[in-house]
């Protein structure tokens, strides 16, 4: 059974880069036809789609974050990562990694990590 | 970007009631619409995909409908564990935006 687990610093200073990793277990990240993605949720607010990466490395990003975000895959470690540069307090949120199933579920996120809280503060 | 608008934002109901949440897209998204349930402090869980298909393991009291720009999530016979927050999401085109959420509260 596929599982996702986020990891990374819980505190990031303003203007620095937020870096999170999602470890995939129970399956290979290199499985064809699957995307991998990130979603965030500021405290008390709704869900925000950040972006996705295809197993080939092709990416889609939210236009509002595109200039600051990078999603990448490390096949050797069965992980994918999120980097968000020049962070401000507005980037404080729970960050979820998730898998959008484009094979059978029209891209719905069917598998989610538990989420990790990242606070931007000096 | 495709904007997703959910209504209502808050809904009060009683155990056993049937409720409907609406999600409207700013342009046609065919049936590329999903519904999620989120319990406090937990990751969202997929309820409905492709507008009306029930995700495996989800109780049959949840149902979805609609196409184009208008969609609904209906919960028949609300159970105590259903009083949480629901989100719609379009996966027609990137950015794959979510609605703002609907919190279902106990009356």
Compact description:
The complex is a heterodimer of chains A (122) and B (107). Chain A is an all-beta fold and 122 residues long. Chain A has strands at 3-7, 11-12, 18-25, 35-41, 48-54, 59-61, 69-74, 79-84, 93-101, 108-112, 116-120.
Give me some keywords for this one.
heterodimer; A: 122 residues; mainly beta; seven-stranded mixed beta sheet; four-stranded antiparallel beta sheet; 0% helix; globular; B: 107 residues; six-stranded mixed beta sheet; 10 strands; 48% strand
Can you characterise this structure?
With 122 residues, chain A is an all-beta fold. Chain A has strands at 3-7, 11-12, 18-25, 35-41, 48-54, 59-61, 69-74, 79-84, 93-101, 108-112, 116-120. In chain A, the strands form two sheets. In chain A, strands 2, 4, 5, 6, 9, 10 and 11 form a seven-stranded mixed β-sheet that branches. In chain A, strands 1-3-8-7 form a four-stranded antiparallel β-sheet, with no helix packed on it. Chain B is mainly β and 107 residues long. Helix content of chain B is 0%, strand content 48%. Chain B contains no helices and ten strands. Chain B has strands at 4-7, 10-13, 19-25, 33-38, 45-49, 53-54, 62-67, 70-75, 85-90, 102-106. In chain B, the strands form two sheets. Chain B has a six-stranded mixed β-sheet, with no helix packed on it. Chain B has a four-stranded antiparallel β-sheet with strand order 1-3-8-7, with no helix packed on it. In chain B, β5 (45-49) and β6 (53-54) form a beta hairpin. Chain B is globular. The model of chain B has no long low-confidence stretch (mean pLDDT 97). At the A-B interface, β5, β9 and β10 of A face β4 and β5 of B.
């Amino acid at each position: 059974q596929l599982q996702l687990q986020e990891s990374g610093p819980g505190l990031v200073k303003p203007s620095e880069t937020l870096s999170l990793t999602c470890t995939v277990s129970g399956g290979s990240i290199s499985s064809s036809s699957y995307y991998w993605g990130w979603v965030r949720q500021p405290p008390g607010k709704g869900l925000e789609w950040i972006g996705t990466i295809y197993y080939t490395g092709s990416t889609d990003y939210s236009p509002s974050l595109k200039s600051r975000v990078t999603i990448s895959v490390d096949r050797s470690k069965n992980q994918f990562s999120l980097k968000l540069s020049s962070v401000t307090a507005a980037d404080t949120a729970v960050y979820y990694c998730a898998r959008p199933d484009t094979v059978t579920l029209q891209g719905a996120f069917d598998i989610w990590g538990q989420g990790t809280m990242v606070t931007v503060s000096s | 970007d495709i904007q997703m608008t959910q209504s209502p934002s808050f809904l009060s109901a009683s155990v056993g009631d049937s409720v409907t949440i609406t999600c409207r897209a700013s342009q046609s998204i065919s049936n590329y619409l999903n519904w999620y349930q989120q319990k406090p402090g937990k990751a969202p869980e997929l309820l409905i995909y492709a507008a009306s298909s029930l995700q495996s393991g989800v109780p049959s009291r949840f149902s979805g409908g609609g196409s184009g720009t208008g969609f609904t999530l209906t919960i028949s016979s609300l159970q105590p564990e259903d009083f949480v927050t629901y989100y719609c999401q379009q996966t027609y085109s990137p950015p794959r935006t979510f609605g703002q959420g609907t919190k279902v509260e106990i009356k």
